[in-house]
Amino acid sequence: MSGAALAVTGSVHVSQARQLAARAAREAGMPAARVERVALATSELATNLVKYATGGLLLVVPHEGVLDVLATDRGPGMAHVTDSMRDGFSTTGTLGIGLGGIRRNADEFDIYSRYGEGTTVLARWFGEGSDREPRIPGVAAARYAAPGEMECGDSWVVARAGGVTTVALSDGLGHGPGAAAASAAATEHVRASPASSLTALVAAMDADMTAHRGATVALAQFREHDPTVLFCGVGNSTVRLIAGDGGHETLVSTPGIVGRRQRSGRRASPVARPWDARSWLIMHSDGISQRWNAAEHLDAFEHDPATVAGWLLGAHGRHRDDACAVVVSGGERM
Fold first, then answer.
1. Which residues of 115-145 are buried (b: 16+ CB within 10 A; e: fewer)?
2. Are the C-beta atoms of 152 and 142 separated by less than 8 Å?
3. Any idea which architecture 4-126 has in CATH?
4. 70: Cα within 13 Å, side-chain hemisphere
5. Contact in structure between 12 and 58 (CB atoms under 8 Å)
6. CATH fit for domain 138-329, picks 3.40.30.10, 3.60.40.10, 3.20.20.150, 3.80.10.10
7. Residue 96 has pLDDT above 50, yes or no
8. Local confidence band at 93 (pLDDT 50, 70, 90 cut-offs)
């Protein structure tokens, strides 16, 4: 999936953020009036990051006929989110200005904030003719290219066919165009054949000689009317499964990489775990620290998957490497 991320630290980044979002809206086929709404809301989000936030990122994420714009930061966070939504409300150290206007301009809006930790705001627009009914499972992602690189070496895809949904995260070795090509080669197999078994998809990635570098991958598969998720991974991606009762488990990948460099005969075998409407699956590359505690942030999983992905990237991204977070929800809020 494509998208763009911008570190927002000065006023010059406000116009850049506006341009990124407006271009994505036009490429999604949105009419001029809607493009202007996207641009206006994005300008306000970026302005708030400049004025009030530390470590601010502005993310533009098009996917499945939807355009998400995320503003995420590392603090100071909001003490009173409800008050901050009122027009004209502003207190030093909060993202108060314009949030009500952003919510009115967006088709969907979400906000997650913890005082002393940071804030993530989601504004979403639907393209013409897109399906506004939530997909089951719901999938969203956020990614960031290493500083100085034009392309992100991490990629993700969600593809569906015949009642099967397959979600994949790929982290190409290194940075830049070579890493991006390796990730694209890996995710293309999922896009082309989402109903194939995870074992077959990994084998196809292993045999693919089109990319000059390998990649680490994490794949999850869901089948209609089947209360399980299948997971298979190769490499060092972090993958956590969170149950509706708050219990959580780390799913372990097979060591190695896929692609030109083989894994010395080690076979990646899928594992099955229970899945229901309150389950969550988090997959992220090593550009995001794994030192986050699901038990301490269960309130995050009352929000949209895109908000959770943005929070992970903003609050726990290393910001010196390619990074990508993919978040899958079972469908209902906890």
1. eeebbbbbbbbbbeebeeeeeebbbbbbbbb
2. no
3. 2-Layer Sandwich (3.30)
4. 32
5. no
6. 3.60.40.10
7. no
8. very low
